[in-house]
Amino acid sequence: MFVRRGAVVLALSAALVGVAPAKESKPPRGAKTVTAVPTETLDQVLTRFDQVQLQIRTLSAEFVQTTRSPLLEDPIVARGRFYLTKPDSVLWEYSVPEPMRFAVADGKYTGYFPERKRAEKRDIKRWSEQLFRFFGVGQGSKELEKFYDIALGESGKAEDGAYLLVLSPKKRRVRKRFDEVRLWVDARSLLPVRIEYVGKDGNEREIRLLNTRFNPDLAVGLYDVAIPDGVPITNGFSGLDISVRANRIGARLPAMRRIGLVLDPVFEGHDTGRGHPESPARLARIREVLEERGLASRCIRFPATPATDAALLRVHAAAHLRRVEDACAAGERFIDSMDTAIGTESARIARLAAGSLSVLCAEVAAARLDGGLAVVRPPGHHAERDIAMGFCLFNNVAVAAAALRAECAVDRVLIVDWDVHHGNGTQHIFEDDPTVFYYSSHQMPLYPGTGYATERGKGRGSGATLNVPLRPGDGDGRFLAGLTEALVPAMESFRPEFVLVSAGFDAHDADPLGSLRVSTEAFADATRIVRTIADRFASGRIVSTLEGGYDLEALAASTAIHLDALL
Q1: 88 with 100: CB under 8 angstroms?
Q2: Any residues with CB less than 8 A from the CB of 562 and at least 6 apart, and which?
Q3: N or C: which end of the chain has fewer CB within 10 A?
Q4: pLDDT grade, residue 186 (50/70/90)?
Q5: Mean pLDDT of all residues in the chain?
Q6: How many whole angstroms separate alpha carbon 418 and alpha carbon 330?
Q7: Which residues lie below 8 Å from residue 500, measured CB to CB, with a gap of 6+?
Q8: Cα 298 versus chain centre, distance
Q9: Distance (Å, rounded) from C-alpha 401 to C-alpha 435?
Q10: Is residue 68 left, alpha or beta, with left meaning phi > 0 and alpha meaning psi from -120 to 50?
Q11: Which residues, listed in sequence order, are joined to residue 374 by a DSSP beta bridge?
């Protein structure tokens, strides 16, 4: 049982996303006043609570939010005012630590940071509906009880003029954020005056509500956050993140990494036919998990962008481009081998895969991003200069590496490939190039039959190839040892200026196409190891692109933990 759509849950929803509410409260004008008694049962408290909440149409209040983090010496204090209009429009206006405005209305989020001349927008209809539902906005007490176990603290006694309600989440996705919320409500009006909780991130938050106004006449267009012309707008929801506020007041917390993300449903249009392991469902499931876990919203989204002929021709023969495009246009179902399936849109989408990765790399090289992840298909590392194979049409990571060298003044590029299959195409394209170092750990024996430890490059590129074959059954230990014991020492002499990762997740224990036993968590460890290389030699510049991975749940979980480690 709990609240009627409005203040208390607004307070909780605000708390959940790092916003605030406030203190002091009186019943709405015209409301029936029910006199509080010193001791009441939970049913009595919630019944009165519902009576008051039913009469609220709009609400505004000042808030003071104090956050204490184990990462910070001093608490973070935020101040401002919030507004609510039933059923689901909310605006937060910050004055401290800096002017900021964030609105949720009609299933859309808009944020504006005037001092930083930056804005962000995101369609969050499903998320916002869940948020408001979980925390009772627009709901009665019986509805809220579906999501929380509610207890009345202090034996039902009103202490300092307020009752303590203890909310324990029932739903798993809520328990992932915190174990318990302690909510104090005014004993007379049953409106919130204080909220406390400890998040799973270890941050303690206290929110106080002040000068609450009930049913005020709010200005038309209040929830329209005006963004001046020329201000860049990203697709994200980072505005209420603790690290933003901490950094703006000089607290000792690492800055948020600006990670670019390509996660576009267009890549699901590459039709490989029924039963093919490299299916559109791979990207669909990744997209669902990244959005469900809030990882996608922490990134700067980039649209799919096609690679030019000039970019592709740096690593592929002109005849190869024509064959791929002609085969797709003719409605062929395979190209070069029976495992490399195509559809009428495949050539266009393969160009988008290669081009999108290159765009992220260019943004990182120009210091507009710190890193990136391209969740694209078809994959690329098997594609040779003049042949498609192993599900791959164009070699995405090779196109990006060549573009970095030709267009971004990057002298030395490291490519780390931990797909279960050896990236024959990438190795062969750069095997005589001393400016591109190719590292691969992969199962052997396994398709495509290349990647022996004796393959170290050719001619001027001798020594710039490093293969670490793994045996069937090898797990986290040998997988990670290749990085720490072979790759890391090799970088002392190569000293890369940019790091690319061919992030295949088919070395996972659950994957049907390989026999390695790598865990989901090991991919996070691998990411951190490679990041240390990027941090030491390449000013942190690192971009990943999806390669293989064919168990949908393992693939999505591994991609998520990889992105989280990049962030």
Answers
A1: no
A2: 373, 503, 505, 523, 524, 527, 544
A3: C
A4: confident
A5: 84
A6: 35
A7: 361, 397, 400, 401, 413, 414, 415, 416, 542, 543, 544, 545
A8: 5
A9: 10
A10: beta
A11: 262, 545
Which amino acid would we find at residue 492? E
DSSP string, 80-124: EEEEEETTTEEEEEEEESS-EEEEEETTEEEEEETTTTEEEEEE-
Residue 131 has pLDDT above 80, yes or no: no
pTM of the model: 0.60
Residue with the two structure tokens 């000293």: 495
For 434-473, give one letter per residue: b (16+ CB within 10 A) or e: ebbbbbbbbbbebbeebbeeebebeeebeebbbbbbbeee
Q: Give dist(CA 557, CA 121) in Å, integer.
A: 26
Give CA–CA dist 393/325, Å, rounded.
10
Q: Give percent helix, percent strand, percent coil of the chain, each to the nearest 5.
A: 30, 25, 40
- Contact in structure between 357 and 399 (CB atoms under 8 Å): yes
- Determine contact, residues 61/82, Cβ cutoff 8 Å: yes
CA distance linking residue 3 with residue 137, whole number of Å:
8
Distances (CA, A) of 418 to 2, 381, 415, 470, 506: 50, 11, 10, 11, 9
Catalytic residue IDs: 382
**Whole-angstrom distance, CA of residue 175 vs CA of residue 180:** 8
pLDDT tens, 350-409? 999 999 999 999 999 999 899 999 999 999 999 999 999 999 999 999 999 999 999 999
Region at 121 (left for phi over 0; alpha for psi -120 to 50; beta for the rest) = beta
Q: Which two tokens stand for residue 13?
A: 């929803």
Structure tokens at 344: 């009428």
Contact 507, 443 (CB under 8 A): yes
| Burial status of residue 26 (CB atoms within 10 A of its CB: 0-12, 13-18, 19 or more) | middle
Cα-Cα-Cα-Cα dihedral sign, residues 227, 229, 234, 235: positive
> Radius of gyration over alpha carbons of the chain, in Å?
27
Q: Tokens 């869940």 label which residue?
A: 130
Locate 481 and state its tokens. 């040892």
Residue 378: closest CA among 272, 501, 529: 272
Per-residue pLDDT reduced to its tens digit, 405-448 = 999 999 999 999 999 999 999 999 999 999 999 999 999 999 99
Question: 438 is written with which tokens?
Answer: 């190719």
- List all residues 6 or more positions away from 114 whose beta carbon is below 8 Å from its beta carbon: 99, 100
Burial class (CB in 10 A: 0-12, 13-18, 19+), 254: exposed
> Contact, 529 vs 536, CB < 8 A?
no
Match 């290349």 to its residue by tokens: 450
- Backbone torsions φ then ψ of 301, nearest 5 degrees: -80, 140
Cβ neighbours, 10 Å, residue 291: 15
* Residue 163 main-chain phi, psi, to 5 deg: -95, 145
pLDDT tens digit string along 8-62? 333 333 333 333 333 334 444 444 444 444 578 888 888 888 887 778 888 888 8
